Amino acid sequence: MPAVTPVPDRGLREPTGPRVLLTVGTDHHPFNRLVRWANDWLEVHPEQVPRFFVQSGTASLRPICPGSAYLDAGQLDAALDKADVVVCHGGPATIAAGWARGLLPIAVPRLPQLGEHVDDHQLSFCLKLAELGRVRLAQTQTEFARLLEEVARDLAAFHASVPATDVDAVVARFGELVDGLVGRSRPRPPLIYRGRQRRTAGGIGNASGLSKPPPGFPRAATWQGTDARVRADLARRSNKERG
Q1: Tens-place pLDDT, residues 3-19
Q2: The most confident of 39-53, 186-200, 202-216, 223-237, by mean pLDDT
Q3: Eight-class DSSP state of 132
Q4: CB–CB of 205/237 below 8 Å?
Q5: Could you give the domains of the chain?
């Protein structure tokens, strides 16, 4: 029987407000910092716990909201389709997946000095994206909390204007930017994340640890996948998220 992240019983009314999907990607480095920031914010805003879903990867901290360690391709697409807000690490494929759905992601880049990645290319990438108005950047816990509170006041500020048909070209240009920032010489895998009608096969991990999604998110039956497919999805997505 898979492990399940429980939702605290706080005797709360059915919440209203944006549905938030938080994803840390597939990199093997734990991203405890982002999970802790989400937990801390939800402790202060417990009425929003059922509206959050956290994909936590290898983090040792468990989300206090519905969550899963990994999601496969179909699960990720379903969650993104239902989300009103996307919070993510600085992976180009995840950011582009938000753009493809008209969302302006809240991006928290992984930092190598905290053991979250091998170098600081996510920070350089996200700083440039923030300068161009393509992400809402949170480098501190204070900024992260402020952005989540802004979501409740002005959800439109977290919607993107990048047409789905232009996402591939935009991601390709930003991929070239990252190559220049980090001085890579190796070929990059194509960072293509088309819109809802043209999806890539890559997903995020497997469905172990899956709990009941928040209201409005896909039902549990839609989150199931075969082990073989999940492993293949994880391998493909890992290659993309290394950017």
Answers
A1: 445 444 444 445 568 99
A2: 39-53
A3: T
A4: yes
A5: 20-241 (3.40.50.2000)
